[in-house]
């Protein structure tokens, strides 16, 4: 990155237009606040600033300019997708990505089997292989 150029915080998010997530599981957390831009929402989500949970996604209400930070995403159990013309959904790519980059140290997705169908070894296990 060049000097003076700021990185766009939306780069880390996958956008789905006109979609909102509805939590069916009451333990999932949401926090909302009025903010003028999706970039401000993304920055706060990436830094987890002022949030009591790890932000995995946010929905931006274009009508009320309200940001809804979510402790869940579209792949979380107990969540339903809802078509809503007022909202755009932004999910952290790290949590919805189905591929592993590099050695996978930052992988947060849901893939737990190899291409050939073998169950993956848990990260906290040294059996059958050492890391």
TrEMBL record:
<dbReference type="GO" id="GO:0005102">
    <property type="term" value="F:signaling receptor binding"/>
</dbReference>
<dbReference type="InterPro" id="IPR050759">
    <property type="entry name" value="Serine_protease_kringle"/>
</dbReference>
<dbReference type="InterPro" id="IPR000001">
    <property type="entry name" value="Kringle"/>
</dbReference>
<dbReference type="InterPro" id="IPR003609">
    <property type="entry name" value="Pan_app"/>
</dbReference>
<feature type="domain" description="Apple">
    <location>
        <begin position="5"/>
        <end position="94"/>
    </location>
</feature>
<dbReference type="Pfam" id="PF00051">
    <property type="entry name" value="Kringle"/>
</dbReference>
<dbReference type="GO" id="GO:0005615">
    <property type="term" value="C:extracellular space"/>
</dbReference>
<keyword id="KW-0420">Kringle</keyword>
<dbReference type="InterPro" id="IPR038178">
    <property type="entry name" value="Kringle_sf"/>
</dbReference>
<dbReference type="Pfam" id="PF00024">
    <property type="entry name" value="PAN_1"/>
</dbReference>
<dbReference type="InterPro" id="IPR013806">
    <property type="entry name" value="Kringle-like"/>
</dbReference>
<protein>
    <submittedName>
        <fullName>HGF factor</fullName>
    </submittedName>
</protein>
<keyword id="KW-1015">Disulfide bond</keyword>
<dbReference type="GO" id="GO:0004175">
    <property type="term" value="F:endopeptidase activity"/>
</dbReference>
<feature type="domain" description="Kringle">
    <location>
        <begin position="98"/>
        <end position="131"/>
    </location>
</feature>
């Amino acid at each position: 990155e060049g000097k003076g150029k700021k990185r766009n915080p939306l780069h880390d998010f996958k956008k789905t237009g006109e979609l909102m997530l509805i939590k069916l599981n009451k333990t999932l957390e949401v926090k909302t606040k009025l903010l003028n831009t999706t970039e401000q929402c993304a920055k706060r989500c990436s830094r987890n600033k002022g949030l009591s949970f790890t932000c995995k996604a946010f929905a931006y209400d274009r009508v009320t300019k309200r940001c809804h930070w979510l402790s869940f995403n579209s792949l979380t159990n107990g969540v339903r997708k809802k078509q809503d013309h007022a909202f755009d959904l932004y999910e952290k790519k790290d949590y919805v990505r189905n591929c592993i980059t590099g050695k996978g140290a930052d992988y947060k997705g849901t893939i737990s089997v190899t291409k050939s169908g073998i169950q993956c070894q848990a990260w906290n296990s040294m059996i059958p292989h050492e890391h």
